[in-house]
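User: Can you help me understand a structure? I only have the sequence.
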Amino acid sequence: MKSIDHIGIAVNNLNQAVEVYKDILGFEYLGEEIVEDQGVRIAKFNCNGIHLEFLEPISNDSPIKKFLETKGQGIHHIAYKCDNIIQQIELLKQKGIKMINDSPKEGSNNTQIAFLHPKSTIILTELIQGG
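Assistant: Let's start by predicting it. Here is the structure, written out as tokens:
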């Protein structure tokens, strides 16, 4: 893994998060995107090269909706850049890390992603390649 790509933050109201982080705090707003596969609408901000991604559920079966119902708003995951996500998944599995995704899935901005289970990594962890 190379570096932190982004920190994912679950929110109930994406428009409110955009107002606070763009209009009040003055972070560089990078835009919004919907990732149907994950059931989320995302607003992205730049914070000195690390992105903050605010995640609002768009469906009842979204993992973010379930997270909000059980834990409330807050940090959902940390994502790390990697060069070869398939190789990284296999290496982590060999080291005993429990994966949520055994193979990459489509993420935002033409990326490939895979999640590591928080039982193995303390906090939900995402691998990300591309973008």
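Now, to help you interpret it: The two ends are 15 Å apart (CA to CA). The longest helix spans residues 14-24. Let me know which part you'd like to focus on.
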